[in-house]
Amino acid sequence: MYDLPSDGPRRCSGTVSQFLPGRPGAPAGTVRFMWMHGHDLELSAAENYRAFAEEAGGRSPVYAALAGSVAEDTAILRFLGSLPPGKRQPNLLFAAARYLLGGPGDLDGLQALVSQNAAELSEVMLARRTQTNEPARCATLLPALAQLPPPLALIEAGASAGLTLLIDRYSYDYAGHQIAGQDPLAPTLGCEPRGPVPLPARLPEITWRAGIDLNPLDVNSDDDFRWLSCLVWPGEGDREQRLAAAIASARRDPPVVHRGDILTDLPALAAQAPAEATLVVYHSAVLAYLTPPDRRRFAATVRGLQAVWLSNEGPGVVPEVPIPPYQGTPFVLAREGRTPIALTDSHGTWLQWLTVTT
What we know:
By secondary structure, the protein is of the alpha/beta class. It has two domains: 45-127, no CATH class; 135-219 and 228-356, Rossmann fold (3-Layer(aba) Sandwich). Helix content is 31%, strand content 17%. The chain contains eleven helices and 14 strands. It has helices at residues 45-56, 61-70, 74-81, 90-101, 107-116, 118-127, 138-146, 222-230, 239-252, 266-270, 292-303; strands spanning 2-3, 152-157, 171-174, 177-179, 188-190, 192-194, 206-213, 257-259, 278-284, 308-313, 331-335, 339-344, 350-353, 355-356.
């Protein structure tokens, strides 16, 4: 059973099924399983884009309007139908359009791409992944990491360009509670703490770090930097500037991100970590791209390591993690794949700590 702060949703207990509220066909009070953000393989493309429009409304009016228009556009829906099901998600389409158009696409630009450059658009979507590497997620992970015995050795599964491996480079501002990072030129990550967040006085000591990803992005590649920039939604404040500052910091001392499969190559990477450090395996918005059997396989693999496991994923994504009551579309920060410890904003702007009760 979990208590939220008094300004959060009501206290509740028990288990929930795999349906998100408000989705087509979802029984009242249940939680529908989502494969990935904005993309449910059990729904049509039109239904997914309508759902995305609703979710994006408070975050990016431009993308909310565009997704709503795509849901009614026969030609664009036909184009999406020509792609593999896992390549039809709004984030990927809009980022690919921005990549080709040189700026956030509107409906006219997207229609022109589909009618005149469908092969090129398809090529980008098939070659690329939605590897959003939001450094502000570090602000939601830091309080959990700071509670562990130092020094720490970090492995990030699905690390993209490795920007969220650089937790000790950034500075932090938790509504006035400030923590200085090691790189004075790196961005300061602002995060609103809600509830009894155990804010640390200083950053934890990190002696070793490595990432693993099927398709690592290179912080020194201007093209990879461009792709990461295309994944930022228009209208989201300073996210692009924060990304640029984080890339600049990473380029001064690039993180190591290995090409590999988190289902098979994680143990070999974990074996490289120094034995005297507390090994932490963590990930954000990664397991949603795996099938349920592969999520269970990943969980079994991590539990077989001598490591602390921190997951930061959407509700219902990590097997065996109970889903606390929530509003909106948060992530659930959990430990060892079983205990939720916080609700977090998917882009790191707030952190709501949970109090575990018996």
